[in-house]
């Protein structure tokens, strides 16, 4: 099943184009510079969300 480029871009926006706080693991918008949570002290120690690894479909050989 093939996905249209607009659908892929929309899915990436909501699923993978995110930043993650290294202290409290909060999901933040792509352009974030500080965490929004007060429990980590509004830390600026952020990383990009990891890419999803897609596995190829398993084929049963006889």
Automatic annotation (TrEMBL):
It is found in: Cytoplasm. InterPro entries: Ribosomal_eL40_dom, Ribosomal_eL40_sf, Ribosomal_zn-bd. The keyword Cell membrane does not apply. Residues 2-53 form the Large ribosomal subunit protein eL40 domain. One of its GO terms (molecular function) is structural constituent of ribosome. Keywords: Cytoplasm, Ribonucleoprotein, Ribosomal protein. The keyword DNA-binding does not apply. GO terms for biological process: translation. It holds the Pfam family Ribosomal_L40e. One of its GO terms (cellular component) is ribosome. This is Ubiquitin-ribosomal protein eL40 fusion protein. It comes from Caenorhabditis remanei (Caenorhabditis vulgaris). The lineage of its organism: Eukaryota, Metazoa, Ecdysozoa, Nematoda, Chromadorea.
């Amino acid at each position: 099943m093939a996905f249209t480029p607009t659908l892929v871009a929309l899915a990436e926006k909501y699923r993978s184009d995110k930043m993650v706080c290294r202290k409290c693991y909060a999901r933040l918008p792509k352009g974030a510079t500080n965490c929004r949570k007060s429990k980590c002290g509004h830390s600026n120690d952020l990383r990009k969300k990891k890419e999803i690894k897609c596995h190829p479909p398993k084929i049963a050989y006889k």
